[in-house]
Amino acid sequence: MDSTTSAPATPPVPSPEEPRSLRLEDWLTVLIMALLALITFANVIVRYFTDSSFAWTEEISVFLMIALALVAGSAAVARDQHIRIEFFCQSGTALRRRRLAQLGAACVALLFATIAVLSVRVVWDDYRFEETSPGIGVPQWWYSIWLPVLSALITWRALGLLRRRTRQQDAEYLAQDAQQPEVAP
After folding, report:
1. From residue 95, how far is each of 34, 92, 109, 110, 168 by CA, in Å?
2. Which phi and psi angles does 82 have, rounded to 5°?
3. If residue 98 lies in a helix (H) or strand (E), which one and from where to where?
4. Disulfide check for 131: which of 20, 140, 146, 152 has CB 3.0–4.6 Å away?
5. What are the DSSP calls for 53-82, one per residue?
């Protein structure tokens, strides 16, 4: 082996604070991205050769992008990588920073629990009134059923983060916070 080649990089070691069950979100993200790429590629090929496109691709793609946003949001909450104002979250005492992290996790849990509960009514109305999708005419609840399910997943992840932050000592929080890579502006 010459000096210009480098040894393969070692896989990142998950933090002991990070939940071990993030495989669900990671695999769903990969699957949804693959489906989006496949559908888009098939539509481009068909459009190139026939000057027309599949009517259903836009409807399915929009659904998959919304599902992708919710699944990735769940992973971001579980990894404590969700959006926050760093000026407030990174200043002050360790207790203040940990309390703000707890407050953020509780607010995320409350928001997505509310979305999950309220969207059940939307699903019920779609089912009860037999609404169909405008593009391909399938029952609308096939799409809307995933909003309360994925919102409940985000709620569950936020409650897990809140539990971890509540059990964590201030020194542990500061040590873990120092290990997180800083994002460039």
Report:
1. 43, 8, 21, 22, 10
2. -75, 170
3. helix 94-128
4. 140
5. --THHHHHHHHHHHHHHHHHHHHHHHTT-S
Chain centroid to CA 30: 12
Q: For the chain, where are the E strands, in sequence order?
A: none
Q: Which of 82, 99, 106, 110 is nearest to 168 (CA)?
A: 99
Assigned token pair, 154: 């985000």
Contacts for 162 with CB less than 8 Å, ≥ 6 apart: 102, 105, 106, 109
Residues of the chain below pLDDT 70: 1-20, 170-185
* pLDDT confidence of residue 85: 75
Match 């050769």 to its residue by tokens.
Answer: 49
Q: What is the pLDDT of residue 19?
A: 61
pLDDT in tens, 123-151: 999 999 999 998 889 999 999 999 999 99
Q: In whole angstroms, give the CA distance from residue 169 to residue 157.
A: 20
Taking the CB of residue 137, how many other CB atoms lie within 10 A of it? Answer: 10
